[in-house]
Every structure is written in C-alpha cells, then in structure tokens.
Amino acid sequence: MASLQGQFLVAWPHLSDPNFFRSVVLIAQHDEDGAFGLILNRPLQQTVHEVWEELGQDPCECGAHLYVGGPVDAPLLALHNSRAHSDAEVLEGVHLTTRADSLDVLVRNPPDQFRVFTGSSGWSAQQLDDELEVGGWLKADATATDVFSDAETIWSRLTRRINLDIVAGSLNARFVPDDASLN
Length: 183
Fold this sequence. Notes:
Layout (H helix, E strand, L loop, with lengths): L6 E5 L12 E8 L2 E6 L3 E5 H7 L10 E4 L8 E4 L7 E4 L2 E4 L2 H9 L5 E5 L2 E4 L2 H7 L3 E5 L2 H4 L6 H17 L13
Parallel strand pairs: 5-9
Antiparallel strand pairs: 1-2, 1-11, 2-3, 3-10, 4-5, 6-8, 6-9, 7-8
C-alpha cells in the first residue's frame, strides 16, 4: 500500500454520502492502521474568534472562518504554513497543529496561510483503499497553493484538472496543447 499522505481525495461527482458530496479531502496521514484527513471546502459561517469565545479562551481577533474537517468528532486543529508551530508536516509548506498551546499562538497571530477545523475525516485500516478500489474517490497531487486556495472552487478546479489528465493520457501527446482548456 502506497501512502496517500499529502494528496487530495476528490469526491467522485456521483458520491452520494452527504458528508463528502463534492468534497476535497487533504490526506494528513495514511498507513497500515488507517487514514486521517480534512475536508477543505466546508467553511462555516462561524469565525475562529466566535469559537474561541465559546471555548472560554482569552479573546482573539481572528476573523477567519472555521471549517468542517469531516464527520468524525475531533478537537480543533489547524492547517497552516508556520513551521515553528507544527506538529507534523503534511506536505511541503503545509503543517498540521493539534496542540492547544500552538493553536492559541496561531489564532492570535495567524500566518498568511491558515485554516482552523472542527472535526476530521477518518478511515480504518484498509477502508480507504477499498473505497478507492470501488471508485468513490479520485486522487490528485496536492500543493500548498491548492490547500489554501478558494474553498468554493477547489472541487471544480481539481475535477477539471483530473479530467484533463485523463484525456491527455489517452491521446497522442503531440496533439495535446499545453493548455487543453483552450481547445
């Protein structure tokens, strides 16, 4: 089994599970024990500032929206680009933090690339591999730019990219323009 850590799972357009309909999940960990990831395109109306107040923490001014990372209950966690407050590097330029002390520092002085999540997405051993085998998910390479890009359009951009890769792979390469969307 090859690890999918640092890659995207893009929900197949016909995936009917409402938790994952048209979702993009960044896989933060994937090994023989299972997988863990975060849905990147489920922003809430609630801001980090509001959640911080509800938790009884000292107030912060972070107006960033909170995101639903998935249907599994989990403590607040963040994806960001601050190596200094990282618990783990998911992929180059994307760090994961779950420790309360580091989250507190991050919400008070948010780095330029920063998202806070409630909940996560998880799969037991072999479960994700089985879902991939039956075609529930498409895979795509992830970049920090994509991770922190517009949540409203990431699913459509990645499905277009995957479709172009499929089409380009099935054609004679000398007839495919550099940007097939211009065709």
